[in-house]
Amino acid sequence: MPVEQQSRPRSSCPDSVPGQLVRQNRWVHETRAIPPIIPDTLCVTHPLPTTHSKSHSIPPYLHHRLFTITMAAETAASRTYTLNNGVKVPAVGFGTFANEGAKGETYNAVAKALEVGYRHLDCAWFYGNEDEVGDALRDFLAKTPSVKREDIFICTKVWNHLHAPEDVEWSIKDSLANLRVDYIDLFLVHWPVAAEKNADHTVKIGPDGKYVINKALTENPEPTWRAMERLVDARLARSIGVSNWTIAGLEQLLQFARIKPVVNQIEIHPFFPNTELVDFCFKHDIMPTAYSPLGSQNQVPTTGETVRGDPTLNAVAKRSGHNLGQVLLAWGLQRGYIVLPKSSTPSRIEGNFQIPTLSQEDFEAVQAVARTHRTRFVNMKDTFGYDVWPEDS
Ligand code: NAP
């Protein structure tokens, strides 16, 4: 079962002138010039592909030889991308989804992750565990004075039944209270599906046991996006973005967005490389973010194959001297996007942060697996009663 289907809620730009981007706001404590955007082809001295230039015609992962050179001197901890609004984001984020009922699991995992050095947390209102993330963050910051709130990049998301403009604001305020922070670094619309709510902010379920879809807001997300933009204006969110958005959905959004989405968080792993959407995002200066980068725990329904059990991927891991998780995360970084591994196991939390650089041969071997697979593991159409990807069925 796709990982997010196992959960339910529990709780309650700046103008850009190349070379002259100047910001003065609460996120940047001093006024400073942000370095000019460096085209990918001139990236030799730059750690990783930063903002992808609009004239970008070659998919970023084809530049991986270059990235290989530049990544070698870095650690996962220092690797960042620059989003289309100038905000920097750590390339490796820690996934915080946890099965409902596993009380304390998220606290322990996030505490360990922060200790190991992760500085990017991927949360969601829907996961029902933002309070545990908040507790772990508060305790870590209290005992680690060298790290400040602003050193941690926090992403969270608004769930489907909270897409009405006033509910978008309610949602971020609820997340802020649970996370015990006063701003979110990145606030996402979790799915391009709007649903109805009950008076107590729970999801309204119809007689068929599925969500009651708000057709108007699903077909025209402009009111939702305007509410998201107001959160940036109100400085409750530094950046806004989307998740599970399709190319058609992004095209629609880009037509009316005053503030462009900075990321599209989507499923990406070698069994679902999502290449067309990844390329579209790069072309439009929207950073793809890979969820389920380790292939989650799922198997291909028709064959029973799993990412974990794939012989080619395991052979790459064996010959490179790294474990499979590290290989999968390295492949994602070398394709140029953010990766969000999740683990509740301390040794894996550590290992997933020690990401190597794949050789050309190993990168190509993973690419070959990706070219021959197309299985989406996360699709909540049976829960929602609405299919974002009817073409997959
Ligand atoms: P994932 O990170 O691909 O896989 C997590 C699973 O892999 C867990 O069962 C974990 O087990 C195991 N694991 C972790 N490291 C491992 C390693 N080195 N070797 C072997 N197994 C390992 O999948 P995910 O949880 O689906 O996705 C990650 C994050 O993406 C989520 O936590 C969430 O933040 C986000 N996400 C977002 C959406 C969305 O709609 N936007 C959807 C899905 C996920 P243990 O925990 O037992 O170690």
UniProtKB/TrEMBL annotation:
Keywords: Oxidoreductase. GO terms for molecular function: oxidoreductase activity. The lineage of its organism: Eukaryota, Fungi, Dikarya, Ascomycota, Pezizomycotina. InterPro entries: AKR (IPR020471), Aldo/ket_reductase_CS (IPR018170), NAD(P)_OxRdtase_dom_sf (IPR036812), NADP_OxRdtase_dom (IPR023210). PANTHER family: ALDO/KETO REDUCTASE. The keyword Ion transport does not apply. Residues 92-369 form the NADP-dependent oxidoreductase domain. SUPFAM superfamilies: NAD(P)-linked oxidoreductase. This is NADP-dependent oxidoreductase domain-containing protein.
